[in-house]
Each structure stands twice: as C-alpha cells, then as structure tokens.
C-alpha cells in the first residue's frame, strides 16, 4: 500500500501540473474569464471555507448563477491544487439524465479535458467515466443504486445533491439515506444546492446546517396573461358556450365535473370559463379550449402557441424564444405543426429546436448557441428548462401553464399522470428565464385569475406518487421498517400511501408477510423499472417468451408508438385495430406492430410501414434501443442466456404472453360483462370504469374474456383504464398474485376474495375444479 500511495501522489502531482498548464493556455484563460464573470465566482472562497468547516451546507442561488457547473468544479480544483487530486471523489447528482450529461460535458470542457477523464457522467444504462474520474455527475437514481451495493459510499469524499428545491422523490429519499449515513462517515461532506430561497427547510432537516446564498442578477421580465396577449395580438377566443356546438370538447366538460369537488381547481375552471365567456367570438377555430382538458396529454392550445410565436417572429425585437410544454409528446406534435407553418417552418427565418432527454451534443450546441443571420431561435422544452438547463439568450418565454405531474390518490390507490396547472413558484421561474441577458417578456397562455388560483409551491413528489418502487428500494437497502424509515423524511408521506404500497408488494410477492424481501423482490429491486414491469421481464425470461415481453415492457416504459392525428382519427384507430385482430389486447397489438416494423426495417421499408400504420418510427426506435438495454440487464443479473432460440422458445404462444402480462399487471384487473349493446367493466377499488379512448378494447362489440388486466388507470370523473389485455379465469388464478404466499390455499383464498367480490357465479366451478386439479398436480 506504500507503493499505492506513491502512485496516488504521483497522479496528484500530475493532475496539478495539467490543471496549471490548462489555466495558462490561451483557451484556458478565455474559459476562466467567462467563469469569473458568473455570480458564483464571488462566493468561491467563502463556499470552499464553509465546505471545509462543515459536514453539511445548503447553497441557494438563482438559476444560471453557476451552482451546478462551478461549485463542484471549485472543490475539484482546490483538491487538485492542494495535491490531493487523485484522492478525492466527488459525486454530484442531477434529477434528470439530460442535465447530468450536458453538465458533465460542459464541466469537462471548462476543465480543459475530454469527457470521461477527470470529469464523467453516469445515468441509467449509460455512462462515460474512467478509472481516474474524480468528479462524477449522475442521476439521483444511479447514486441510490450504488448505495445498494456500497452502503457507506466507500472512497467518496463529497456528495452534492443538486436541484433539491424540486423535491423529487429520489432526492427526498436520498436525503433520508444520507442523513443516516453522515454520522458513520464523518469525513464525508454533503452539499445541497437549491434554486430557490427555501433553504431553511433543508438546513433544519440537517440539524441547522449553515446556508449560503449566491446573489444573482436578472433583468426585469414583463408578464402578460391571456387577456393581455389577446388584446395585443388581436386574437379572439371561442367562448365556452360555443364549444359544445362544435362537439369536440368532451374532455373539457369531464374535467369540469371531475374537479368540481376540488375547490382550488374548480376556481380555476370557473375562472377560465369566465375569461372565455368575456372574450368575443370571431369565428376563428381556436384550440384553446383544448388547453382546458386535463387528461389528454396532447391538450395544449397549439394554435394559440403558434399564433403567439408568429406574433413574436413578425413583430418583436430579436431574441430567442423558449416555449414550455408538458411533455415529449406535445413537443413533437407541436414541432410537426410548426414545421408545416409558412413562417415558422421557414428555416431561413426560424431555427426550431426541441430540448429533450437524449440530445446529441450537436443538438445541444444549437440550443445553447447563437443562430446566424438574424434567424430566430425557438426552443421547445419541458419543465426541465425551468432550472436544470440555462439558455442564455432567451428574451421571450411562452408558458402553457402546465406540467405533466404525477399525482396519487391514496384513498382509491390510483396514480394519475396528468398535465396539470403548475405552481406560482414554477410560473415565476419560467418567467425569469426570459431575463438572463436583457429585459424580457413572458407570455402566460392563461388568464391572470387562473394564475392567482395556482398553489404557491408544488407538492413534493413523495406526497403525490405511489411508493412501490421506493419501498422496494428501502427494503433492498436494508433500511429497516418501511413506515419508520419514511416517517423520517423531510415531509413524510401519508400512512395510507405507505400501507398501500407495502400491501401491493406483498400481493405481487415481492415482500413476504413480515415485510422481508423475497427472492422475487430482490430481483425486482435490481431492475430499474416499476415492479410490475420488472415482474413481467422476469417471467418472460423464465417462461422463454422473452422478445415479445421485452417489447411490451420497453413500450410501456417509453410511450405509445401509435399516433392518432386529430384529422385522421378513424383511419388511425382502424390501423391499430388491425394489429389487435382477435387479440383483445393493446399489449399484443404493440408486439405485433413492433414485429412488423422490425421486418419492414430489414427490408428498408420501416418508414413506409410506420406511415401506413400510423406508427411513430422515432418511438419504435426508442423502444428498440430500450429493449436491448433491458436484455443486457437481464443477462447481467443472470436471468437469461445468450441463446435467442431458447429465450424465445414459447414466444409465439399468445396464451402464455397473456398470462405473463397478467402476472405483471395483477392486481390491476377489471371484470368484463358483455351487455346487449355495451361492455360493463368494474374494478374492486373503483366500481364501474371505462376504457381510455385509444384502447383497442374500446371499439369491440364484445370481449370474449372474463377479465381485463390493465397497466394504468387514470382518474378523471370516472376511472379510465389505459392499455389492457383480456385474460381468462385460469390465467388469473394461476398467474395473478403470488402462489408462494401462504401456499396454494392462501393464494386461492386471496383470489377467491377477488372472485367473490366480482360475483361471478360461473367462476365458483372453475375455481374449485382448478383448485382440485392444482392440488392433484402438486400431490404428484
Ligand atoms: P445554475 O446551476 O446555478 O443554474 P449553471 O452552473 O448550470 O447554473 O450555469 C452557469 C452558467 O454557465 C450559465 O448561465 C451559462 O451561461 C453557462 N453554461 C452552462 N452550461 C453551458 C453550456 N453547455 N454551454 C455554454 N454555457 C453554459
Ligand atoms: Mg443548476
């Protein structure tokens, strides 16, 4: 170990030398000059001092002041300077992949190195780091998984948790774990970074850790709400009472009913209604009414956005435009719409960019760079552009007022992922993005009275999502009792949510009666997907029907590849229905569509195939790449071998696929009763439910299966089931839940409870026959 120490010393010297020569090179000097202009630089010394004197500090500072790119680098540089370069290991977590990657690229460049040398990154299933990486940017999830195998973070000297103000579930979780770890690792330093001033909350959580603030400077930004925009641009809204006549806006009505019992939201709804009624109707068909619907992910007022963008390009001073959308789906659809526009699609005038989680570095250059020749840069982004990334030259912000947010209804045990109204804090943050280099303007695409009804801050994610994956992690990290552990969170979740999650994990067989991890649970915790998808993967591997199950799991993790253009809805639906012929399954339709695409790709006809069948080739490619990654993961944990033939021995057995899908999705089951003219569906928690509009099972006259399993339900006024698959009684009996729980009898008893609930008399027979057969089988 003396020899080892020598090597480290030599390396440290070498690092110091490298750093010095970079900082003295012309390029390095330029870079330093830029870095010194950032507000963080003024605080460099006091920051380093605070870090050396305290185990935990909390730093706040406005977005763009240099927290993410500078502070970790200050630590790295000072360690190198002090000749400890090879001894330090700094981990900086980011809530999103894209920021981990783009920030590491930036920091490596500022440090005068290639990515993967001193500075690297690691995100789920992908990374760029070497043995000598000292400063690692990773997603919070990656650090959590590392804690799985390395509970005391051996060798790590600094942990920096970024963007804690977002209050993501992983970040809150990580803070509990770190709080527990700090006393055992007195040499470990923890730095928390936040873009807002609520540092006190975190400081008191860490026993009064010191806080420091980096004062920033932004230019004033003028906020304009819908009424101002309408007046300024001469645009007219469709009054609410006209919408029904067009018969297009069922969703808006539904939301209205759904939220009428939620006071805050109902205030918003009536405020919007008033605003729409006040506005005067000029016969222009405007899709603003859609921006009011809450469960359709495509429901942003595209035409209004288009109109505002046109106005900016035609009439406003130069400066980039940043448009906040809710998700990748609507960014894509909007992009298509804008590309087709005579002015906005004109590449000599407009550079239209989308900011997403897997941008290449050339795309990033375009986003951060200045287009030439008076071309107007328009960047479409999600809420990650609120704080995670900073585009300096933005002068105009267009804010749709929504973000896709998961929420969770613990009473009904129902998760919801809906574009919902953002908080006042988020709206302010969006607005602030327009004032980085000069005064700017923000177009809020909703009336001021709607803004007034926004909540002040967004609810922490821990309080609005199902906790299943989290509970599994707690168990696999051996952190003790789940409810006890979670009660030490910054803001602990409801007891009922915790109880639901634990109950779920028991039902699917991931935890035993005493809340201990089962073998299945341990495998599930190693797979970076929801437990239900993990279970499907594992069973797909065990039952040798791997490829189709990979497709289903990747499809559910990416997004639906079926596209439904508003003007070709019928054609699109019948295209999808063809894939589902006699299958009564959205999942099997997905498998068939994907397989068809692979065949077409092999003959260079993939694009045509997608076009003909209303599929998104981009999504299919994403699914394709995720499938490969899942396959490697399964291989790594020893569940599958390399032989594709063995792995897929039963891949053509649709019955088996159905059963495996059932095993994964249980207890997401609904009973099916075919009525004269309709199909009645019912779940145990919700009573009657409906199918989401684009499910293939929504358009069939009858479903010849007694059950549907579904992967997601969404609550509007009634509960809607998303993708579903028909399954038989015996599939449910054999694959639903966990046979190992309480033996066969216990299993059947639990299922019996379900069957009784649904009062299917004909099942009693199947149930007892099956029980007898199974018992005989087991006897043998
Ligand atoms: P914070 O974390 O406080 O929001 P950052 O450290 O991310 O701030 O960014 C500080 C500054 O560095 C930004 O204002 C921007 O000017 C610059 N910057 C960050 N990333 C890049 C990049 N990829 N290319 C060019 N400049 C960048
Ligand atoms: Mg930052």
From TrEMBL:
Chemical reaction(s) catalysed: ATP + H2O = ADP + phosphate + H(+)
Protein name per its UniProtKB record: RNA helicase
Family: Belongs to the DExH box helicase family.
EC number: 3.6.4.13
Annotated GO CC locations: nucleus
Keyword RNA-binding applies: yes
Top-level taxon of the source organism: Eukaryota
Domain Helicase C-terminal residues, every copy: 304-478
Residues of the whole record sequence present: 245 to 1024 of 1181
Keywords carried by this UniProt record: ATP-binding, Helicase, Hydrolase, Nucleotide-binding, RNA-binding
GO terms of molecular function: ATP binding; hydrolase activity; RNA binding; RNA helicase activity
UniProt domain Helicase ATP-binding: residue ranges: 48-215
Top class in the EC scheme: hydrolase
